[in-house]
Amino acid sequence: MDSYQFSASIIQSIVSLAWPAAFVAAAWMFRDKINELLPLLRLKYKDLDLSFRLDEAEQEAQALPAAEPLEPTPEETNKFAHLVRISPRAAIMDRRLELEDALINFARSVGIDLRNPSLLQVTRELRKHQLIDKTTSALLDDLRAIGNVAAHNATADVSEHDAERFRVLADKLIQQLRISAAAAEMNRGPMPLAPNA
């Protein structure tokens, strides 16, 4: 091996180590931003995404203001318990529908009336007008995603425990939305009566 080959092999070794070193250096430089972005990482493998979303939603729900919990009627409790025993997926989808109704009613009470509204559409519109905070918006997004997994992902394993966790979170939001809708209706006052034709 002459001096040229030796120099070339040293340069080649340095170049082959440059990419890993650059990656480690970049990760070190941006470690604060990477730590902020890691919770937003979505992993999907069967039911891992569902339980991860439920964990995240429970953390977001803790940031919501505490309200006096409304006790469900025996009929509501029996209906949900019956649905959970038959199909946890159906129980989640049923509660998601109630959440969507409460959100649409709140949007209408504050003057937002969309054609063919969806949970995502209404959430975005309310967030755009700053009628819901970031935490509520994030929780709505998580519950929407969980409902989508229950409705459309046949391979995801949805347990009775998952359905119960979803119910607790959805009920908290439903109660908050109904209270906010009632307050908005009260602030608007009585509707003027139409003159007799």
Short description:
It is built from eight helices and no strands. By secondary structure, it is mainly α.
Write structural notes for this entry.
This protein is mostly helical. The chain folds into 2 domains: 32 residues, no CATH class; 146 residues, Four Helix Bundle (Hemerythrin (Met), subunit A). It has 8 helices and no strands. α3 runs antiparallel to α7 and α7 crosses α8. It is elongated and about 90 Å long. The termini are far apart.
List keywords for this structure.
disordered C terminus, elongated, 197 residues, Four Helix Bundle (Hemerythrin (Met), subunit A), 2 domains, 72% helix, mainly alpha
Series of H and E elements:
HHHHHHHH
Structure class: mainly alpha
Proportion in β-strands: under 5%
What's the domain count? 2
CATH class annotation of the largest domain: Mainly Alpha
Q: What is the 3D shape?
A: elongated
Q: Rg to the nearest angstrom? A: 25 Å
Biggest β-sheet description: none
**Number of helices, where a helix is a run of at least 4 consecutive DSSP H or I residues:** 8
Mind telling me which CATH architecture of the largest domain this is?
Up-down Bundle
